[in-house]
């Protein structure tokens, strides 16, 4: 089975640069990703974020991308499910309309929210984000699957109603979650959902444990679109002509991102039992932000190097049982991102998905030809 490649962006904007210009650059990056063979573009949803991360309305971007792309799939990564941020029926409506306008190219991955900045801005109780996500996803799926539906839950009570319009993809587009806890991995598997799995810098062994928990719990939802597990991992990413060039261009940005992206996790761990597991990752997070060797070679989160090095690193994740990689090409300039997209399309994607069309050294081909020739003493050789 071929490996799927996604371009994952949080629309991060460099200091001194324009948020408005960055948004147009993101569109150019998505269009180039389609040209270079990426399978999907995934956009984060972040609200009132400090610094450069500015992907506050990915649903609007997807509506635009639906008109300026033809093939590449469009994925929310993630739609935030606390009720005060996104009512589940509004999320279902946006997904359905975007699916229609993109001719059936939408996918939705959901999440519970992982920043106190956004939670407090929307008056979200951290103790309620997990049950609201799980209940909201049940309502979302039911509203798309059934003609006339009703729902009676703790957070949502809906009398008989009809979702108008419904999505093109039947029964509904692929739906999944972003998960970092073993509990959420197992829940996703038991629900028959797709999965974006992340280890919070805790290493390959922990990442494998999480994937195994999902696959062990997997049970097909007969009313859903998936007939087998689907696992993707987000990878913080850099690529250059050589390992040193990639390190020079990306190392500082990748370590900085490791520091800021998980800054809220220790606070969240103290606010609600559902987030308490995050405290276990604090030593790994702190180390990832200061130790390049740990971040690159041991954290299970980061890929950076020449095309050959990147291929070897991604093969390690593929061996863990994943079907997708989401390459987080962000935290650097637009020019570097465009260069990275092109290099991935030219050298990395073909290695995994079109190997017979990848140029190999002449000596390697000759060695294989000679190995396949009949031996002098074989019946085929004697009759030749």
Task: Give the helix/strand layout.
Layout: E1 4-9, H1 19-35, E2 40-43, H2 58-68, E3 73-80, H3 88-101, E4 106-111, H4 116-121, H5 129-145, E5 149-152, E6 157-161, E7 175-179, H6 182-191, E8 194-197, H7 204-217, E9 231-239, H8 243-261, H9 265-271, H10 282-288, H11 292-297, E10 302-305, H12 307-318, E11 324-328, H13 334-353, H14 362-372, H15 379-383
Helix pairs in contact: 1-13, 2-3, 3-5, 6-7, 12-13
GO molecular function, one term: oxidoreductase activity, acting on paired donors, with incorporation or reduction of molecular oxygen
Keywords: Monooxygenase, Oxidoreductase
Organism: Bradyrhizobium sacchari
Measured on Cα atoms, how large is the radius of gyration? 22 Å
CATH class: Alpha Beta
CATH architecture: Alpha-Beta Barrel
**Percent helix:** 40-55%
Question: Low-confidence parts, pLDDT < 50 over ≥5 residues?
Answer: none
